[in-house]
Amino acid sequence: MAAIELDGIVRRFGDTTAVAEVSLTTERNEFLVLLGPSGCGKTTLLRMIAGLLEPSEGRILVDGQDVTTLPPRERDLAMVFQNYALYPHLTVERNLGFGLSVRKTGKQEIRRRVEEVAELLDLGHLLRRRPKELSGGQRQRVALGRAMVREPRAFLMDEPLSNLDAKLRAGTRTRLISLHRRLDTTFVYVTHDQIDAMTMATKVAVLNQGRIEQFGTPVEIYDEPASAFVAGFMGAPPMNLLPAELGAGYDDEVVVRAPGVEVALPLRAGADPGIRDVLLGVRPEHLVPVPADHDGPVLRGRVDIVENLGNEEIAQIEIGDLRVNVRGSRPIRLGPGDITTLAVRPEHIHLFARQSGRRLSWESAPVPALVS
């Protein structure tokens, strides 16, 4: 188990900055997910932790030891690659034990560790096979097992589930969660899949253009996104973001006006009173169809498309030139062409400064709303 600290990490490729001033610390036994879209710098960051790339600036510490300039073999960190990187001419057994053989580990010790890992990952019946005879999920387990036999201080994983189909991916997530608990060690896991992050992580670092947009637990990031980017990245469908304006209200309140909605909210102390252009955010699952005379914050629009997901439905609603998504249990009781009124509880409203994208804070106590 290891605590990993990144202190002001920067990585440049010529004139391009791929990672910019990243600082974070994992606790021992953490399951840290580096999450973000393609090209955000998450794999570059992982490769620097592994020692496969050297930072342009900053330090990397493992259990307080500065490993920034150490080669990979001296860091005692195990890497699991996206393409598994198995040796095609070796059996599963020899793939599992290859790293130990290179380190001149005794044959008896290699056999013991390989057998233990094979039993843990249900690979015992596959030890004589070669990679081409395995399914994608089996190859993924072999790649993970090859890292595990080393008994490293931490595991580094670069999108190891991206080549698996949906059913196998879901099952492998469960296996990884179980392994993390049983091994009692640190995982650093790179993915662009928010479901991976929400289901497996103890902490998530959301990256955008080489910088950390937010670092926190999955619940914190989903419920209180620190920026419009995080709000729009997390969730399926993501948060609805509507251009809105802030205007003066009574006492300490401000009035938020967006297409089809006008609601008064009390801003917390410290919010910039000069901000007028904002984004009003609402999660699709927090929009609920209500009667047209509903008293409270509402949106009104026309239903365009309804998607059936089995246990849920997602309706796309046109509000002027904008679209919002509504997510609810099936049947959602909306059909194409319907004119609908959608309610949202005030505590489920999020505000972001439109220019900077940063979150604005306000008191969540319900207040009277004026419907336009």
- Counting structural domains, the number is 2
Question: At the fourth CATH level, what is the homologous superfamily of the largest domain?
Answer: P-loop containing nucleotide triphosphate hydrolases
Query: Which structural class best describes the helix and strand composition?
Result: alpha+beta
Number of E-type strands: 21
User: Helix segment count?
Assistant: 8
Helix-strand topology string: EEEHEEEHHHEHEHEEHHEEEEEEEEEEE
Measured between the Cα atoms of the first and last residue, the distance is 57 Å
Largest sheet strand order: 6-7-8-3-9-10
Taken from the alpha-carbon principal axes, the silhouette is elongated
Reported by name, the CATH topology of the largest domain is Rossmann fold
Q: In CATH's first tier, which class of the largest domain applies? A: Alpha Beta
Task: Give the low-pLDDT segments.
Answer: 364-372
Q: Helical residue percent?
A: 10-25%
> Mean pLDDT, as a whole number?
87
Percentage of residues in DSSP E strands = 25-35%
Largest β-sheet summary: 6 strands, mixed
Query: Which architecture of the largest domain per CATH?
Result: 3-Layer(aba) Sandwich
Computed CA radius of gyration, to the nearest angstrom:
25 Å
Structure, explained:
This protein is an alpha+beta fold and 372 residues long. It folds into two domains: 4-229, Rossmann fold (3-Layer(aba) Sandwich), CATH 3.40.50.300; 238-360, OB fold (Dihydrolipoamide Acetyltransferase, E2P) (Beta Barrel). Helix content is 23%, strand content 34%. The protein is built from eight helices and 21 strands. It has helices spanning 42-50, 92-102, 107-120, 136-148, 166-183, 194-200, 218-223, 228-233; strands at 4-13, 16-25, 31-35, 57-62, 65-66, 77-80, 154-158, 186-191, 203-208, 211-216, 240-248, 253-258, 261-266, 277-282, 288-290, 298-308, 312-319, 322-329, 339-343, 350-353, 359-360. The chain has a six-stranded mixed beta sheet with strand order 6-7-8-3-9-10, with helices on both faces. It has a six-stranded antiparallel beta sheet with strand order 13-12-11-14-20-21. A five-stranded antiparallel beta sheet has the order 15-19-16-17-18, with no helix packed on it. A hairpin with a 2-residue loop joins strand 9 and strand 10 (211-216).
